[in-house]
């Protein structure tokens, strides 16, 4: 019974656009403009479903957990690709804090070459704040760059299927209305 209740609560959160509860909802809207150094990850992924992961490595324990999360993210990327979900962009934005910046090279070396990891500069506007995000959040955007899902803990644990299901939904459905950049999607059952 409790499992069914938990699933119903999770689905309600997913259908309402995720875990955002502060201020005006950014559901189905373009994110605020952000870039890291001279790169604009959202502009670079325009036309594809985009998954932005806000991850942080700070202590030895967190460092280990982040590495395992990166491995699971790569596993998810490969799984979806094998199931026919192509043209999905994955982006990891490391935390802006000093300890996270110090571990950036280690994180980048552990992540798949298919998933870029961006390191924020100390003096730039914090991307996490601009996106109203927190540690371990996943933001999933449609092909037109509109936010469809913002998943926070515990729904962002990759051992659960919330992130995967959200990606599939954004890939196959027009939750935010028609997108002129949507390519012909073959019918995929999940």
How would you describe this protein?
With 190 residues, the protein is an alpha/beta fold. It is 36% helix and 14% strand. The chain is built from seven helices and five strands; from the N terminus they run ααβαβααβαββα. The protein has helices spanning 2-15, 41-44, 60-82, 98-102, 104-110, 127-130, 162-172, and strands spanning 49-55, 88-94, 117-119, 137-141, 147-151. It has a five-stranded mixed β-sheet with strand order 3-2-1-4-5. Strand 4 and strand 5 form a beta hairpin. The model is unreliable at 4-23 (pLDDT under 50).
Put the structure in a nutshell.
This is Selenoprotein P N-terminal domain-containing protein. This protein has 190 residues and is of the alpha/beta class. It has seven helices and five strands.
Helix content class: 25-40%
pLDDT average, as an integer? 81
Task: Give the neighbour order of strands across the main sheet.
Answer: 3-2-1-4-5
In N-to-C order, the SSE pattern is HHEHEHHEHEEH
Q: Alpha-carbon distance between the termini?
A: 24 Å
Largest sheet report:
5 strands, mixed
Fraction in beta strands: 5-15%
Number of helices: 7
Structural class: alpha/beta
Question: What is the rounded Rg?
Answer: 16 Å
Low-confidence stretches: 4-23
Q: State the shape.
A: globular
Number of strands: 5
Keywords: Glycoprotein, Secreted, Selenocysteine, Signal
Pfam family, one: SelP_N
Domain Selenoprotein P N-terminal: 23-186
Protein name: Selenoprotein P N-terminal domain-containing protein
């Amino acid at each position: 019974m409790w499992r069914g209740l938990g699933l119903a609560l999770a689905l309600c959160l997913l259908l309402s656009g995720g875990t955002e509860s502060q201020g005006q909802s950014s559901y189905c809207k373009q994110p605020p403009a952000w870039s890291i150094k001279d790169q604009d990850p959202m502009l670079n992924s325009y036309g594809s479903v985009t998954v932005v992961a806000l991850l942080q490595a700070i202590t030895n324990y967190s460092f280990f957990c982040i590495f395992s999360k990166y491995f699971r993210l790569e596993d998810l990327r490969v799984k979806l690709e094998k199931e026919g979900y192509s043209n999905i962009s994955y982006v990891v934005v490391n935390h802006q804090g000093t300890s996270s910046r110090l571990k950036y090279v280690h994180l980048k070396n552990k992540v798949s070459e298919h998933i870029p990891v961006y390191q924020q500069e100390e003096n730039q506007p914090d991307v996490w704040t601009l996106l109203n995000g927190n540690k371990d959040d996943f933001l999933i955007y449609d092909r037109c760059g509109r936010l469809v899902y913002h998943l926070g803990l515990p729904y962002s644990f990759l051992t659960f299927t919330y992130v995967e299901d959200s990606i599939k939904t954004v890939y196959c459905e027009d939750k935010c209305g028609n997108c002129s950049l949507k390519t012909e999607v073959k019918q995929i059952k999940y």
